[in-house]
Write a structure and sequence with these properties.
The chain has 547 residues and is an alpha/beta fold. The protein contains 17 helices and 25 strands. The longest helix has 17 residues. The protein binds alpha-D-glucopyranose.
Length: 547
């Protein structure tokens, strides 16, 4: 059954969710301990970031064995128990399939290094001399995308860290190996899958220098990507399970196809264009204030085109690669509560499946680290060096990391106000932001007006109102840069969603919600009318049902 349209999915960054054995790392047993919390929140699926055997250079996105569990996270029987316990609570588990690359510690790569031809063909090795990489392509984590192996006299491709070697999907044997991974987890009762950077799997036949970019135009949404995805999904029989593909620098046209039910590829896509509206000239490491007009245009264009084609997207602000939304698009100080709730309303009421990233439902903020030693992420540490080399001062580079580092989203889940926020009884692998004393589950559970309780209500509305889970979407007042307004309609029912994206006060014509409306939810106590206007306060948000 395709129930992903009325589902809400919760993302767990395992390493930072709950530590059960006092080593400072989150683990599977800890996750099991917190399942009741997720049940109470009302989520349907959990996407778990990778906990497979890994040297953890990229926190588990560098997998050395797809079918076994890294001891840092637990054991296979604990994972089986997790699946079972989640199932008892009506929650399905989605596992994270990192199929674009493996860790260089994976047996396949190790055998390739030993010169075994079969395994060399699993990867993208190219001949070349040691001073000249095969192309000028850049790794997404900085530096060349090629690494030289003196012993073999060859270079191998790594679009990410040099310990993450790209797999050769043109090799049928590789595709079969990966299908077996899916079958393995499906048999264990996993209910869905998230596919990491899956639109990068199909590389071009000829590798050439990119004179105008970093190489991505050659391998993004590559030549056989749709064919390979279709094959992976249909051969393993997961076309009716919930699947989501992470699409890096993708296009709308391709996403329409990836998520179109007729194509039998994926249930939905993650794309990231809306999370680049604060990149100066498209550069993540140059800061600018969010361009709200562009943000709205991106949401609008994608939503309408996907709708027109019967395709589907994940709607989200946060994940383990992104800074915290409330610090980025809201105001995490004066209007912390209001803006966190407003941002949640924006994505939860759109046409798509909403994802909540752990701690987002509490309004967790960026980390505000003051020292470089507090950062852990390979990308952040690489880019600190690159920025310094390019002339930025330490203070400038630190300020940029403060806003852009992926570690902002990787700090431990804030459960309570005890020393280590209830995450662990020892010093965690990464520092906890100071605000855990008031931003935490315990405090918010007992406050009826909390961000956490607001999320619960948003989830309930989705379950109750088919206009939200299945309805048509139309956007209103597009010219108003300070407002994000849309209408959802299904079977004669209409719901209007109003979001004020700014500080300060503004108003809109009350006729927008008709003469008679019921406010299903809002982040202020009531609606304020003035004559024929609705007054909107800072970051005000409301969901109104037209009666
Ligand atoms: C995805 C993951 C990210 C990881 C990268 C390489 O973007 O979300 O965390 O570093 O892929 O696997």
């Amino acid at each position: 059954m395709n129930d992903f349209k009325n589902s809400v999915i919760y993302q767990i960054y395992t390493k930072s969710f709950q530590d059960s054995n006092g080593d400072g790392f989150g683990d599977i047993k800890g996750t099991i301990q917190r399942l009741d919390y997720l049940k109470d929140l009302g989520v349907d699926y959990i996407w778990m970031t990778p906990f497979f055997v890994s040297p953890l250079n990229d926190n588990g996105y560098d997998i050395a064995d797809y079918k076994d569990i890294d001891p840092v996270f637990g054991t296979m029987s604990e994972v089986e128990l997790l699946i079972e316990e989640a199932d008892k609570r009506g929650i399905g588990l989605m596992f994270d399939m990192v199929f674009n690359h493996t860790s260089t510690s994976h047996e396949w790569f190790q055998r390739a290094l030993n010169g075994e031809q079969k395994y060399m063909d699993y990867y993208l090795f190219k001949d070349g001399n040691p001073d000249q990489p095969p192309t000028n392509w850049q790794s997404k984590f900085g530096g060349s995308a090629w690494e030289y192996v003196p012993k073999l006299g060859k270079w191998y491709l790594h679009l990410f860290d040099k310990t993450q070697a790209d797999l050769n999907w043109d090799n049928k044997e590789v595709r079969e190996e990966l299908k077996n991974v899916i079958r393995f987890w499906k048999k264990k009762g996993v209910k869905g899958f998230r596919f990491d950077v899956v639109n990068l799997i199909s590389k071009p036949e000829v590798f050439e220098d990119d004179e105008i970019g970093d190489g991505r135009r050659y391998y993004t949404d590559g030549p056989h990507v749709h064919e390979y995805l279709h094959e992976l999904v249909t051969d393993t029989g997961i076309e009716d399970m919930v699947t989501v593909g992470e699409m890096s620098s993708t296009s709308l046209e391709n996403c329409i196809r990836y998520s179109n039910p007729n194509e039998k590829e994926l249930s939905m896509v993650f794309h990231f264009h809306h999370l680049k509206v604060d990149y100066k000239n498209g550069n993540k490491w140059e800061i600018q204030k969010p361009d709200y007009r562009q943000l709205k245009t991106l949401f609008t264009d994608w939503q309408l085109e996907l709708q027109k084609n019967g395709s589907w997207e994940a709607t989200f602000w946060c994940n383990h690669d992104q800074p915290r939304a409330v610090s980025r698009f809201g105001d995490d100080k004066k209007y912390w509560k209001e803006s966190a709730k407003m941002l949640a309303t924006c994505t939860h009421m759109l046409r798509g499946t909403p994802y909540i990233y752990q701690g987002e439902e509490l309004g967790m903020t960026n980390a505000y680290y003051q020292r470089l030693e507090q950062y852990r992420d390979v990308e952040s540490l690489n880019y600190y060096e690159i920025m310094r080399k390019n002339g930025k001062t330490d203070a400038e580079a630190m300020q940029i990391l403060g806003e852009r580092s992926r570690d902002n989203g990787r700090t431990p889940m804030q459960w309570d106000d005890t020393t280590y926020a209830g995450f662990s009884n020892t010093k965690p692998w990464i520092s906890i932001p100071d605000n855990y004393t008031y931003i935490n589950v315990k405090t918010e559970n007992s406050d009826s007006d909390s961000i956490l309780n607001y999320y619960k209500k948003l989830i309930q509305i989705r379950k109750k109102e088919r206009a939200i889970s299945e309805g048509n979407i139309t956007f209103l007042f597009h010219e108003r840069e300070d407002l994000f307004l849309y209408k959802r309609e299904f079977d004669g029912e209409t719901i209007i969603v109003i979001n004020h994206l700014r500080d300060g006060e503004t108003n809109i014509d009350a006729s927008i919600v008709g003469n008679n409306c019921q406010r299903l939810l809002g982040n202020y106590e009531d609606i304020i009318y003035n004559k024929k206007q609705i007054i909107l306060r800072p970051y005000e948000s409301m969901i109104c049902k037209v009666l």
